[in-house]
Design goal:
This protein is an alpha/beta fold. It contains three helices and eight strands; from the N terminus they run βαββαββαβββ.
Length: about 130
């Protein structure tokens, strides 16, 4: 008996805004949209496929009243597919991300950034 990692849920103030940002970052599309919730993903999950094998999780943005107060305990790492890390950082800045300092120091091989609501993520090695 096992479980599957099916969704990553992100609490936020503006689900639509974050879904749009992360769709642009990851090349995902909106799979479901309800009051106060938007789900995005790279594929349309079905019960049969999820039962058969581990598939990439979807990302669900859920509206909550409270704001982010501390550094994330969990974050995403993204790897550019067809560009350099520097080029991807520039693209993400244009989408509304910002560079942040969480105590990582200098000279690292990754860049720490935050999405429009301040959720940290790392841009790591390029796959190009």
């Amino acid at each position: 008996m096992t479980s599957r990692f099916t969704e990553l849920v992100v609490d936020c103030h503006e689900p639509e805004r974050l879904a749009e940002f992360w769709c642009a970052v990851l090349g995902f599309r909106v799979l479901d949209r309800r009051e106060g919730m938007v789900e995005i993903g790279s594929w349309e999950p079905t019960v049969e496929e999820v039962r058969a094998r581990q598939m990439p999780p979807t990302v669900v943005f859920v509206r909550v009243p409270e704001g982010k107060t501390v550094k994330n305990r969990l974050h995403l790492d993204v790897s550019p597919v067809d560009a350099s890390t520097d080029d991807e950082v520039a693209r993400l800045l244009g989408l509304g991300a910002v560079k942040v300092d969480v105590g990582q120091g200098t000279g690292r091989s990754w860049v720490v950034m935050a999405d429009p609501e301040g959720n940290e993520f790392d841009v790591v090695r390029t796959l190009a």
